[in-house]
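for the recovery benchmark. tokens below, seq after
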């Protein structure tokens, strides 16, 4: 593809994302490229990087246009603005690539040229910007993020803009971490041990690993280090009964099965049959044989039959995903304050349901990939007020028992990881113990 054709394809992809603001951009991109199989690998990467650049800076680009009285800029204008403000293109350079020739975008009209001309020479970030666009954070999330980070918010916001590394987990049912690192090295992939997770490995760049022998043979799984630590804090041991109540595609179920050495019983629960089907494939590849899947449905009697029977119950709750914004930049604009309010209520309901499964003396582990106190500490305070037969186990106490040779990532009482402070996605986890009687 010519540079102009790549640019045109990036506009089309960005337009598709803008047209479905509630749908994850990566799912839209998958459909987009599936329908255009003629776009080769290098062209696909170029098109994706261009579109994702504009998506990553969408809040700032919108602010620049709002100053000019444009409330809903087109994908053409957004991409043109990104080229000028973030990549340093001239207006003439943009104009030349909107040539209207074969496979190129149609020529800029006079109004588009005038608007882009006003952006020429401007920096992407201006001192007069409000804190939200200046830090590339949506206004609805600012109160919670200010509460979380205070004076360090600017540094954390900058970390959320950096590209995330690729974290992997060694499947201890099949291989040690050292052997997994060696297997990757044999395939030309250099990885290093993660500092906090005893099973984690990190690749600096986002290299595809799904076609490697190590992945296909179930030696490794893709999983952020923060997510691995949630599984670690569950402290599931051989012979226990464990419920992964919001299992999704079973990433944490897989990690927990390894800590249990395939001994005992894990139930991976979810409300989506499709997600559980995907979980089944992953469980088989990893040689997990102590797990079953259960589809949660309305009126389901499974929870009543299993009341107070599980040693460990993990609730990896649906959340705003603010901790994953470096990986999913579109979520900054896909989620809003109304979503947060609805999710807080949903999380409370899920916690109440899941807590009924915990045996006396057993533990409930609550986790989110959110940085917002409303979904984290405040959710825990409300739960403990409703359920006074549970007590929070201090994070440092749990950590020191599991990782005595590694300093805890924070003082507690809960685990609160962030990209800026820990180099992981933003994860929160709380360990709650039901009173013995």
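predicted aa per position
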């Amino acid at each position: 593809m010519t540079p102009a054709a790549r640019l045109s394809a990036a506009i089309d992809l960005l337009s598709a994302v803008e047209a479905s603001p509630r749908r994850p951009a990566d799912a839209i991109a998958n459909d987009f490229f599936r329908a255009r199989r003629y776009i080769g690998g290098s062209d696909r990467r170029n098109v994706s990087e261009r579109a994702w650049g504009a998506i990553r800076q969408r809040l700032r680009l919108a602010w620049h246009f709002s100053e000019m009285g444009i409330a809903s800029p087109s994908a053409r204008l957004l991409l043109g603005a990104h080229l000028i403000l973030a990549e340093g293109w001239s207006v003439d350079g943009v104009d030349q690539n909107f040539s209207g020739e074969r496979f190129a975008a149609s020529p800029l009209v006079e109004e588009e040229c005038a608007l882009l001309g006003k952006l020429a020479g401007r920096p992407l970030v201006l001192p007069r910007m409000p804190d939200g666009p200046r830090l590339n954070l949506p206004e609805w999330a600012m109160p919670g993020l200010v509460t979380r980070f205070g004076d360090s918010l600017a540094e954390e916001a900058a970390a959320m803009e950096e590209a995330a590394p690729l974290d992997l987990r060694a499947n201890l049912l099949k291989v040690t971490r050292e052997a997994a690192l060696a297997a990757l090295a044999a395939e030309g992939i250099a990885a290093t041990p993660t500092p906090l997770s005893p099973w984690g490995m990190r690749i600096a760049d986002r290299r595809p690993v799904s076609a490697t022998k190590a992945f296909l043979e179930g030696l490794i799984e893709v999983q952020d280090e923060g997510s691995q630590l949630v599984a670690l804090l569950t402290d599931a041991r051989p012979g226990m009964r464990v419920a992964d109540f919001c299992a999704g595609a079973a990433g944490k179920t897989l990690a927990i099965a390894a800590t249990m050495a395939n001994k005992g019983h894990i139930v991976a629960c979810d409300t989506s049959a499709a997600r559980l089907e995907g979980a089944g494939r992953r469980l088989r590849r990893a040689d997990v044989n102590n797990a079953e899947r259960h589809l949660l449905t309305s009126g389901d009697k499974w929870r009543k039959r299993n009341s107070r029977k599980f040693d460990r119950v993990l609730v990896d709750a649906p959340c705003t995903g603010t901790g994953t914004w470096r990986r999913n930049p579109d979520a900054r604009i896909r989620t809003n304050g109304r979503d947060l309010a609805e999710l807080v209520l949903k999380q409370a309901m899920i916690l109440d349901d899941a807590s009924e499964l915990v045996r006396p003396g057993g533990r409930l582990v609550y986790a989110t990939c959110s940085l917002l106190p409303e979904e984290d500490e405040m959710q825990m305070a409300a739960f403990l007020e409703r359920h006074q037969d549970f007590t929070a186990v201090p994070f440092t106490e749990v950590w020191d028992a599991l990782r005595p040779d590694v300093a805890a990532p924070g003082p507690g009482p809960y685990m609160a990881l962030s990209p800026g402070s820990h180099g992981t996605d933003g994860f929160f986890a709380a360990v709650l113990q039901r009173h013995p009687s």
